[in-house]
Amino acid sequence: MREKPLLRELTTLGLGGTALAEAVVRAESDLDELSGFFARSGGRPFVLGGGSNILALDEDSDLVLVSVRNADLPEAPAGNGATLVRAGAGLPLPRLLKFCEETGLSGLEPLAGIPGRVGGAVAMNAGSYGAEMKDLLARVRLWTPDRGLFWVEARDCVFGYRHFEAPSGIGRHLVWEAEFRLACADPSAVRAKAREIHERKKATQPVNARSAGCVFKNPPGKSAGMLLDQAGFKGRRVGNMAFSELHANFLVNLGGGRSAEALELLDTARATVLDRFGERLETEVIILS
Length: 289
Hints:
This protein is 27% helix and 28% strand. It is an alpha+beta fold. The strands form 6 sheets. Strands 6, 7, 10, 11 and 14 form a 5-stranded antiparallel sheet that branches. It has a 4-stranded mixed sheet with strand order 1-2-5-3. The protein is globular, with a radius of gyration of 19 Å.
């Protein structure tokens, strides 16, 4: 445990003030201490993951962070055809994709270029280029203070657009592990597909910038990025925060940006898109205060 962690150092967008405390959980035995940690800290629990998809406010907060770092390599595949692969919630997605490339497991290639961790990808039902977590998940291992660790089948969970809910009655939880149902394929083909998708993203998205990913959800049948582009927000800047010149739905920190500048950009964008196109944009990023 450490006290007073800086959220700007823990999030990909590089914004955020001081939280009360942070617990880093690496092994199952560490989970036994979480309930006591919450009680001693007295703040609001929040599972942070890799810090992507987060817009944290610069003010100090009463947040108590849990960072899951069970990042061992995925379980080795076995058998032919559809293959179950288990990965810890703390494993970075790029490492999981690299494992799949090396072992010839297909299905996760559309997620190439996403910087988050497995747990956050499940919790947000991450998706890209037509693939979502819900299409690949077989089951998820959760932890709650009263039940400890247990598995739930993916078919019993509720998924939506950038949304995941555990089965009814489970309550507050964290994702500890996930099992994916993938398909055996030629490793070179998996690698080629992942790299082709990553190159396409690099050409159209600021994958190397300080960004939280897409800021707004796509309205039904529409592209938030296209609406923002047509409204003139590509490259729009307030202070040191800006919408990317590559993709209007990516908010980037140009260096020393502040959350107030980010929120001003988001508010202006929402109002303009509603006025011009009649579309209400909902944030995809979690605004953490």
